[in-house]
Write a structure and sequence with these properties.
alpha/beta; 5-stranded parallel sheet; single chain; 5 helices
Length: 141
């Protein structure tokens, strides 16, 4: 699939990824889930808080996390992305309207595959996933 377009052959040129969505706005979370579904990926869960996201990641071991920075209960997406990277080597794509809140030290520790500003442009998430360094993705073959 190119640019997030659905292929006539669902798995042609892409691997199905297990993706965790970490977003406290239900409308944005459902939109992300829909985009990921259209790309042929499997959303393993939607988490609105850091603690829920970390628990879901431990239970489902996703290939990738899509992470907002400002989460419910005052928790931070940076903390989620850091735990996922350090403890489980799960990469993240940060999607937030507050990218300026990520410090250089956090960026170095998290090593996000992409940092996208809300609102997302059409096809932006698909392009970011397509260029992400995810184990088991076609470019690793």
């Amino acid at each position: 699939m190119v640019g997030g377009q659905k292929s006539f052959f669902p798995n042609e040129g892409t691997a199905t990824l297990k993706v965790l969505v970490v977003e406290d706005n239900i409308f944005i979370a459902l939109d992300l889930e829909g985009q990921l579904d259209e790309m042929g990926h499997d959303v393993v869960g939607i988490a609105a808080t850091a603690s829920k996201a970390i628990q879901m990641a431990r239970d489902s071991v996703p290939d990738l996390a899509i992470v907002d920075l400002q989460l419910a209960d005052g928790s931070r997406g940076q903390d989620v992305a850091l735990v996922l990277r350090r403890e489980m080597d799960i990469p993240s794509i940060i999607v937030s309207g507050s990218l300026h809140q990520v410090t250089d030290e956090e960026k170095a520790a998290i090593r996000p595959d992409a940092m996208l500003s809300k609102p997302l442009l059409s096809g932006e998430l698909g392009r970011a996933i397509g260029t992400a360094n995810i184990s088991g993705s076609p470019k690793d073959e």
